[in-house]
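Database export, one record per block. Field names are fixed; values are copied verbatim from the stored entry.
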Amino acid sequence: MSSRGRLLVVEDEPSIRELLCASLRFAGFTVTSAATGSEALQAARDDSPDLVLLDVMLPDRDGFEVVRRLRSSGVRVPVLYLTARDGTDDRVTGLTIGGDGYITKPFSLEEVIARVTAVLRRTRPGTEQLTCGELSLDVDSHVVRRGSRVVELSPTEFRLLHYLMRNSGRVLSKAQILDQVWSHDFDGDVGVVESYISYLRRKVDGTEPRLIHTVRGLGYMIRP
């Protein structure tokens, strides 16, 4: 089962970290975060992200040291540096030790998403399609099909289906769905999840076999 990608955002400035995480989730990625180099090392080993967005200037150790430690322990995850330091020496150092590119602050969110997508396409070729039974979701083109029928979804419905399919076979709580699909700064309640699950069922699950299931007292799951 493939996905658009699992990202680890490492940034010690809370406002930048939260903005990046929310924007990347909105774009369809699964995102975890860390605020220090030590947290980044632990998360990279525990969560197995597909790519790390790594601030060079961290409070406990710089991003270059984080990459050196990852590479020395055999972790080959792609890394994009976030930095206000754009000197040639820094760039050479970062790329030589195993980085995959730089994004210079201040940056646009569109640039970040484009760079992340480009690196993932290069490092994870052919992994932009999700399937569950006869249901398919193409991450790049945003095309959803049930069998041969194309299903028209709103952006929110697409993000919800993408999250369910990314975690096929796993029960997801309403709180988890709310956090990943609407992001942590959404002021609504979990009732919106029930509403959108209902919308999604009407569009993609109107025929047998049913794919989206309610697990009473726990949440929802999709499975073939």
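Remark 1: The radius of gyration is 19 Å.
Remark 2: The CA atoms of residues 30 and 223 lie 19 Å apart.
End of record.
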